[in-house]
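Hi R.,

Here's the input for the phosphoenolpyruvate complex you asked about:
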Amino acid sequence: MKKLLDITPVCNWLEGAKRPLMIAGPCSAESEIQMLTTAKAISAIDDKIIFRAGIWKPRTRPNAFEGVGSIGLQWMKKVKEETGMLTATEVANTSHVEECLKAGIDILWIGARTTVNPFSVQEIANALKGTDIPVFVKNPVNPDLQLWIGALERINQAGITKIAAIHRGFHSHSVTPFRNDPKWEMAIELRTLCPELPIICDPSHICGNTDLIPYISQKALDMDMHGLMIETHCMPSIALSDAKQQLTPGQLSSLIEKLVVRKSNSENIEFKSKLEELRESINKTDDELLQILMNRMLVAEKIGAYKKENKVTILQTNRWESLLNERLNNASMMGLSESFVRSLYVLIHEESIRKQTEIMN
Ligand code: PEP
Ligand code: MN
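And here is the predicted structure with phosphoenolpyruvate in place:
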């Protein structure tokens, strides 16, 4: 099968690339002093951290701080000269790309509000033709995997192979503790479709506050994500954008210290054979699970036929409510999570109804 994307591995273009790849810096460039103070404190933690700062800020409502604009590029240059860190910023149109290339910015990223718009992404892709600057693509605001992949493809088709995705969470109508729901399953699906694509997690925009950042950062590493982008500001409380979610360099340093970096895999023979054994046991259990589901559907079909004979409707709400409550009770005694078992039963019930409807008609 033809690969979805043509990717140059990070280790081939980033000197001394480490896992996790760390990107840190303020949400927005605000002043030369804010940039240099923040950058120096970050580079003191590790000068391999890539320095991020937004120069042009896409704000949801007008009249908010929309970024300092081009002058910020000069501060980025200074950060690079004085700390040696690579620099990264967000681009949303042709002139942003041109100005960044001229100013020697090392890495560009496309923001969540731009990824949603194929016209804008194509405009950026066209402006990138003939260059080989690395480009990271944030997920679109809404949970649409095709839009995310489409943006990566447009950039890739412009000849950019140093690419990565950034997982920054998704807008959600449900109540969640996050500013943007992580929906890890979206990142997993992207990984499955394109295993070579590095995915960097952005815990700052997922969390929207500083409390949950360590949890999301560790979870991202445990999901084998390639790196982390963490908003860091020398004085978060007076930041002009995203004040609530930015860490101080001190907090960033203790976060990095506490992160547990596990290996993607191990070559240890004992580990491999034990894992093999456990996987075999999962395969066997899954096989049993499918057979049980098959049996359940056969019983549902029988019930369907019986209801038809007796001219009774498919759905009896009371029965469904009491069945679900009983299953949830049993499941909780078995230590299974309520939300998991509830979603599972909704699916099973839907499928039973579908089968019974087939029989009725
Ligand atoms: C940002 O990184 O500051 C930003 C605007 O992020 P996003 O595009 O993920 O909202
Ligand atoms: Mn931000």
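One thing worth noting: The beta strands are 21-25, 50-52, 87-91, 107-110, 135-138, 163-167, 199-201, 227-231.

Cheers,
M.
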